[in-house]
Prior knowledge:
mainly beta; Thiol Ester Dehydrase, Chain A; seven-stranded antiparallel beta sheet
Amino acid sequence: MSADLLQDAQRVAFPGFESHGPFYRLVSSDSADRYIYIADTRHTDDGGRLPRAVLAGFAHGAMEAACRSNGESPTIVSLSCDFAADAQAGDRIEAQIRITRRTRSVIFLSADLTANGRVLLTANGLAKPAA
Length: 131
């Protein structure tokens, strides 16, 4: 893995998904929560494609990490994913997470996963903050 792919990135934990990582959070001057995963052959099918369940899992983990980076301890209670394209081994997959709304009982999130300028997945989720 090339070091320039991860310039300005910090390794982050995705509890329950660590065997699929490592995962990174991009450190940037804007307020966007962005996460990186480099797809590797450990998780691809015989055709070299990353199963879409791995993309959904990455979206889920990135949503939780975005909430944690804002001082929350959430549980994702709903996740809806729309798949647009396949990822391949070696792809640098980036998740951009937005917290679109907060109430006392629910956090509303959206995610876009991209690789090499291609949209792979869009997702919407609901998280329940820890009581």
